[in-house]
Specification:
The complex is a heterodimer of chains A (328) and B (528). Chain A has 328 residues and is mainly α. Helices cover 76% and strands 1% of the residues of chain A. Chain A has a two-stranded antiparallel ribbon with strand order 1-2. In chain A, a hairpin with a 5-residue loop joins strand 1 and strand 2. Chain A is globular. Chain B has 528 residues and is α+β, with helices and mostly antiparallel strands. In chain B, the strands form 4 sheets. In chain B, strands 1, 8, 9, 10, 11, 12, 13, 14, 15, 16 and 17 form an 11-stranded mixed sheet that branches. A 4-stranded antiparallel sheet of chain B has the order 4-5-7-6, with helices on one face. Chain B has a two-stranded antiparallel sheet with strand order 2-3. In chain B, a hairpin with a 2-residue loop joins strand 6 and strand 7. Classes of the chains: A mainly alpha (328), B alpha+beta (528). The interface between A and B is large, with 60 and 59 residues. Chain B: InterPro entries: Peptide/Ni-bd, SBP_5, SBP_5_dom. Chain B: Pfam families: SBP_bac_5. Chain B: Belongs to the bacterial solute-binding protein 5 family. Chain B: GO terms for molecular function: peptide transmembrane transporter activity.
Chain lengths: 328, 528
């Protein structure tokens, strides 16, 4: 167990280093930040001096080593665009992204499980069929289009909900501002959360439905029916329990992508989270911010994967046996 | 669709409604980008200045018609006794937002601050040797040699309060490149028509009317409160205006203009923008990098440049690519720049036959290949414009390979001087032709021709252009400008395409018009 843990951690570190290196090499192709930082009147000499000061003239491996060395200490350098430490900026904007991700995750999970169970139980009902067809729309429409459609209907045509921003926020700690405590903050969350969660919702719904149908065909459900248990008890107690295992796994893994995919939703709704900052950073060639963001996202994925792996290990005794024999 | 939604929506609980239109005096202002910093001397950046103009004042500024107006200075002129000295008489009785009186000391301090190495504004005032306070309300600026156009460089040079800067340890500008954040980045003590209430970078900036403003009774000053929000996504910007969450919108998406104009309570104001779009060709090299012609440079032959100039159908570009939102251009300066004439700005007639003949005459009967590099995220419809021009040049046999990319890459390569054929846009902040000559046309040296990547070098032109900064006889100066433009046109140094057009959209109850510098001076805004 301990050996396996250590092996996993080493793997995680390697993944992080690879991500850092790849993202860093990519920055050779994003252009030159200098022009965004000085006016058109700046002389060639000014530009050169600035490049020298930012260390952009050093060899790539040297720049990379410097970056990793700082990153290990939690230092990501200074954002070129905002002229502030990157770590500060990320900490300031992360709450907005996390709140949005949390709400869309909750929305996807509750509705996804509910609709999944319903469509499994009423397999041939007209409503089930309608939900299944509608879910195809959710899967196939690109995020930005969903966002714009929602804005068009609920903000422009109906004037029910705001089309951009977070509304009024309340500061609860030094860098955590929340939109949960005001009416406008909650209203502002609705459209982006739906936009971000729609794909996950359809995914979870179809997964739950398939699993549920699978479980309902098993012997123990037949026995339960034969024993004369109530339908409700069978569906929601015996069947749903076994349906949930793979769903929990998938949800865990999807959590990472919700945070990562927030970029598009945040851009459409001008949601002041890290995703929007990342887009701005790309436009501005804000290399310190871009590398830090990619690292943070990679870290989130690695940690989630790690936890899911560990959970499997704990939950499913069979894995340990298989792993051991495979290890020889 | 619309009708269906409307019919469903009637009878919905009112609690869901957005807050009804805010009180008539709050202006909710949106634009694509945000101010980078409130430190007034750190960055020379359009949106940063646009926001700063509401909070700070320069000595002189350009009003909504781009005419120079007295700001914190009431009179200015060159001393009769010394042509190297500009005298500025300052406005009396002005106070900063914190109540401190405004005096000559603040001007001297602000100019010294703007000349600091950290300041992006220092190039604009590099001709100033020293600034001295003669008395509390008179300032002398000594320039290195006569500089008849000095005030043109000062329209975005804001005046700070010396005592406040010293108290808050911001006597030098924010060092943007070192990532320094000082007190002045988020806090303001200016003399401007609005005071800062709160600042959340990239999210929201709130200001209130300054009741002690020196121009409180001179200007409409109809707004009591401003909330500025950047909204990057073009579709969302337009939607926010349509849904009533925004009252005033800069950076109106071209594709939404008709729709916004058709909306009941929105109008779109249109005016010329201080930006001309053109193509540059590397004429100085022996051989192009991306052409199949070896041992010669087609662009070095004037006939080729003339042929290309004739091949570009600017009317078609205006109608099809720009949806009418541009003005075809014959020169790289908009109409309000000193030196502009309608004659110079006349667009060359499109003539494919003649262009082909010229190419054949120059020795390229079958045309040649070349790569055109363009931005795809900098100017209005830049990539589509380049695609159109690629087709037009194809008609006369020039096979253009189009390479469109992000502006950060484009400008970096352009600065390295490695592009054969490129797109560029230029604005003239000083409103004088010399700015165009100095940067785009003069022979490239250490201090001149900073953006001249054409290899063009002409002794007569350089002589004319270099006489301009110190020429105090305005008639002689204007003659030199006219002659310089003639040379530039005759040599077809660049291929001008069009002047961009600015669109601002707003509620119909707002009285406001477009300002060509894309800097809304909101003290001029009034409500019907």
């Amino acid at each position: 167990m301990i050996a396996m843990l250590i092996r996993r951690i080493i793997q995680a570190v390697v993944v992080m280093l690879v991500v850092a290196f790849i993202s860093f090499s990519l920055f050779q192709f994003v252009g030159d930040p200098i022009n965004n930082m000085v006016g058109q009147e700046a002389s060639q000499q000014d530009r050169e001096e600035l490049r020298e000061r930012l260390g952009l003239n050093d060899a790539i491996p040297i720049q990379f080593m410097r970056f990793v060395g700082n990153a290990v200490q939690g230092e990501f350098g200074i954002s070129y665009r905002m002229a502030r430490p990157v770590s500060d900026v990320i900490m300031e904007r992360l709450p907005a992204t996390l709140e949005l991700a949390f709400v869309s995750g909750l929305f996807a999970l509750t509705l996804g499980i509910g609709l999944g169970v319903y469509t499994a139980l009423r397999r041939n009902g007209w409503l089930s069929n309608f939900i299944m067809s509608a879910s195809l729309v959710g899967v196939s429409l690109p995020t930005f289009l969903i966002g714009i459609l929602l804005i068009y209907v609920f903000a422009v045509e109906l004037s029910w909900l705001p089309s951009f921003g977070r509304g009024e926020t309340v500061r609860i700690s030094d860098n955590w501002t929340t939109g949960f405590l005001t009416a406008s903050g909650l209203q502002s969350l609705i459209l982006p959360a739906i936009t971000l969660g729609l794909f996950q919702l359809t995914l979870i719904m179809r997964l739950v439905r398939a699993e549920m149908l699978e479980v309902l065909r098993t012997d123990y459900i037949k026995f339960a029916r034969a024993r004369g248990l109530k339908q409700r008890s069978i569906h929601f107690h015996h069947a749903l329990k076994n349906t949930m295992l793979p769903v929990i796994t998938i949800t865990g893994l999807q959590l990472g992508s919700i945070i990562a995919f927030a970029i598009i939703t945040e851009t459409v709704f001008q949601w002041p989270g890290v995703g929007l900052l990342f887009i701005n950073a790309i436009r501005f060639v804000d290399i310190p911010f871009m590398s830090a963001y990619l690292l943070v996202i990679a870290l989130i994925f690695v940690v989630i994967n790690f936890i899911v792996d560990m959970l499997y290990f704990v939950v499913d005794p069979r894995l340990r046996v298989v792993k051991r024999s495979a290890g020889r | 669709m619309k009708r269906f939604i409307r019919s469903v929506s009637t009878g919905v609980a009112v609690t869901l409604m957005l807050s009804a239109a805010a009180s008539a005096e709050t202006l909710r202002w949106a634009s694509a980008g945000d101010s980078l910093t409130f430190d007034p001397h750190s960055q020379n950046h359009g949106m940063t200045h646009a926001v700063a103009h509401q909070l700070y004042n320069p000595l002189v500024y350009l009003d909504m018609d781009s005419a120079m107006q007295p700001g914190l200075a009431t009179e200015w002129g060159i001393l009769d006794s010394d042509p190297n000295v500009w005298e500025f008489k300052l406005r009396q009785g002005v106070t900063f937002h914190n109540g401190a009186p405004f005096t000559a000391e603040d001007v001297v301090f602000s100019f010294q601050r703007a000349q600091h190495a950290n300041s992006d504004m220092r190039t604009l005032i590099s001709s100033i040797a020293e600034v001295t306070a003669v008395d509390n309300y008179t300032v002398h600026m000594r320039t290195n040699g006569p500089n008849p156009l000095l005030p043109n460089n000062l329209t975005n040079l804001f005046i700070m309060n010396k005592a406040w800067a010293e108290a808050n340890n911001v006597t030098t500008p924010q060092d943007y490149s070192a990532g320094e954040e000082n007190y002045a980045v988020r806090n303001v003590n200016g003399t401007g028509p609005f005071r800062l209430v709160s600042r959340d970078p990239d999210v929201r900036t709130e200001m209130v009317r300054n009741e002690d403003y020196w121009g409180r009774d001179m200007f409409p000053m109809g707004i009591t409160r401003i909330v500025h929000t950047p909204i990057q996504s073009a579709a969302t910007r337009a939607a926010a205006l349509l849904s009533g969450e925004i009252d005033f919108l800069q950076d109106v998406p071209v594709q939404d203009i008709t729709r916004l104009n058709n909306a009941a309570n929105i109008r779109v104001a249109t005016g010329p923008e201080n930006r001309t779009i053109f193509f540059g060709m590397d004429q100085g090299r022996d051989e192009l990098r991306t052409s199949n012609v070896k041992g010669a440079n087609p662009f070095a032959d004037k006939r080729v440049r003339q042929a290309m100039n004739m091949a570009i159908n600017r009317q078609a570009i205006q109608q099809v690519v720009m949806r009418g939102q541009s003005t075809p251009a014959g020169m790289i300066a908009p109409s309000f720049v000193n030196g502009y004439t309608t004659e110079l700005d006349t667009v060359p007639a499109t003539n494919v036959q003649q262009a082909r003949a010229l190419l054949a005459e120059a020795g390229y009967p079958n045309g040649f290949q070349v790569t055109l590099t363009c931005t795809n995220d900098r100017y209005t419809n830049d990539e589509a414009l380049c695609q159109a021009v690629t087709g037009m040049l194809g008609q006369i046999g020039i096979a253009v390979r189009l390479d469109a990319r992000a502006n950060s890459i484009h400008f970096a390569e352009l600065q390295q001087g490695v592009l054969d054929f490129y797109l560029l846009g230029w604005s003239v902040p000083t409103l004088d032709s010399h700015y165009v000559f100095d940067f785009l046309v003069e022979t490239k040296t250490e201090n001149t021709g900073a953006w001249n990547f054409t290899g063009f070098s002409n002794a007569e032109f350089d002589r004319l252009s270099r006489s301009l900064p110190t020429q105090t006889d305005l008639n002689a100066r204007n003659d030199a400008i006219a002659r310089a433009w003639e040379i530039m046109q005759d040599e077809v140094v660049y291929l001008p395409v069009h002047h961009q057009v600015l669109n601002w959209a707003m509620r119909t109850n707002i009285n406001f018009d477009v300002q060509s510098q894309n800097q809304p001076m909101l003290k001029y805004l009034s409500y019907n």
